[in-house]
Design goal:
Blueprint (H helix, E strand, L loop, with lengths): L2 H12 L4 E2 L7 E6 L5 H9 L5 E4 L4 H12 L5 E4 L10 H14 L22 E7 H13 L6 E8 L1 H13 L16 E2 L4 H11 L6 H20 L9 H7 L1 H4 L4 E3 L2
Parallel strand pairs: 1-7, 2-5, 2-6, 3-4, 4-5, 6-8
Helix pairs in contact: 1-2, 1-8, 7-8
Length: 264
């Protein structure tokens, strides 16, 4: 697996709201790895270049209440979390409330906070969420997340940096340089027709693992494929470029159940 393929996918995932589809769920993306695997750096690189995306190291219910209207009216389409574990570093009931808000925002949409009168209209906020998730947090909460439906709303990319990639990171630290990330690609500005074939859809389902837990992740990945197809059509320059499906196939180990090794 290559980081260029990963960042190409994370860029496409943020613009899945432009795909004209009857399925309005936004879904989310978890980068799951141990400490020192550049999870936070990858989230930041995936989010920071875009004006309609917000990136947080932590977030409170009060801040989410302020963000609900801008998210609902489309000013912001993406929330990024540099470390999801920070949301759980507080009283359990507050953490579960935050989790519930995020759970709703990526799927059916979030409207009322617990302290608001349910008889009154409020805007419904729906957005895409990308987050860095420590493997220890995933192990601690994974079974509960599965039982309460939280995990089934997220694509999960499980990985470790390859030995070569870790050497590259250590070298960059010693010489005082930042790891250079691949540039993001140009993005569409108007809605795009959903054009995924049944064969392509089944192939994506095979990558994720064909079970009853993958509808929202599969739908998100299908929309990302639509964006990647659009980009592929715009960037043909006479050279043989990887196809959109080849970028996703490069990441199949991480998107599957067993995880994979990521090269920089």
């Amino acid at each position: 697996m290559h980081v260029s393929s990963l960042l190409r996918l994370t860029c496409a995932l943020q613009y899945t709201y432009l795909v004209d589809s009857p399925f309005k769920q936004r879904g989310g993306f978890f980068l799951i790895a141990g400490p020192g695997n550049m999870k936070s750096a990858l989230v930041e690189s995936s989010v920071k270049p875009f004006s309609n995306a917000l990136c947080y190291s932590d977030l409170t219910l009060k801040q989410l209440a302020v963000l609900r209207s801008p998210i609902a009216n489309g000013s912001y389409q993406t929330l990024g979390f540099l470390e999801l574990e920070k949301l759980y570093a507080r009283q359990s009931s507050v953490a579960m409330n935050l989790e519930g808000v995020i759970k709703a925002m990526v799927e059916e949409g979030f409207s009322h906070f617990a302290f608001e009168d349910k008889r009154l209209w409020v805007p419904t906020a729906r957005c895409y969420v990308i987050a860095s998730v420590l493997d220890s947090l995933y192990t601690l909460h994974g079974a509960r997340w599965t039982d309460n439906g939280f995990l089934r709303r997220f694509l999960q990319f499980k990985y470790v940096l390859s030995f070569k990639a870790k050497e590259k990171v250590h070298h960059a630290v010693h010489v005082g340089e930042l790891i250079e990330m691949p540039p993001m690609f140009p993005i569409p500005s108007t809605p795009i027709k959903f054009d995924v074939t049944m064969q392509e859809s089944k192939h994506l389902a095979d990558i994720l693992g064909s079970d009853d837990m993958i509808f929202t992740p599969l739908n998100l990945l299908r929309k990302a494929l639509v964006i990647l197809k659009w980009v592929h059509r715009q960037t043909k320059n006479g050279k043989r470029l990887p196809t959109p499906m080849e970028y996703i196939d490069d990441l199949k180990d991480g998107l599957g159940k067993n995880g994979g090794s990521l090269d920089l």
